[in-house]
């Protein structure tokens, strides 16, 4: 149960960090997605293009709901 909490906290942090990056990044979406993918790879998380698109959509939905 503790491991699940740690994973949930990590994913929450990744989501918030990615959302902040997307909101404040003055770059094209493609460049932003590439940078997010690089950060995730450095953390040992590998996503294919479809998974990255899903993650971006989830982040966008969370940000929109928070407004």
TrEMBL record:
One Pfam family linked to the record: YtxH
InterPro entries on file: YtxH
Organism superkingdom: Bacteria
Name of the protein described by the UniProt record: YtxH domain-containing protein
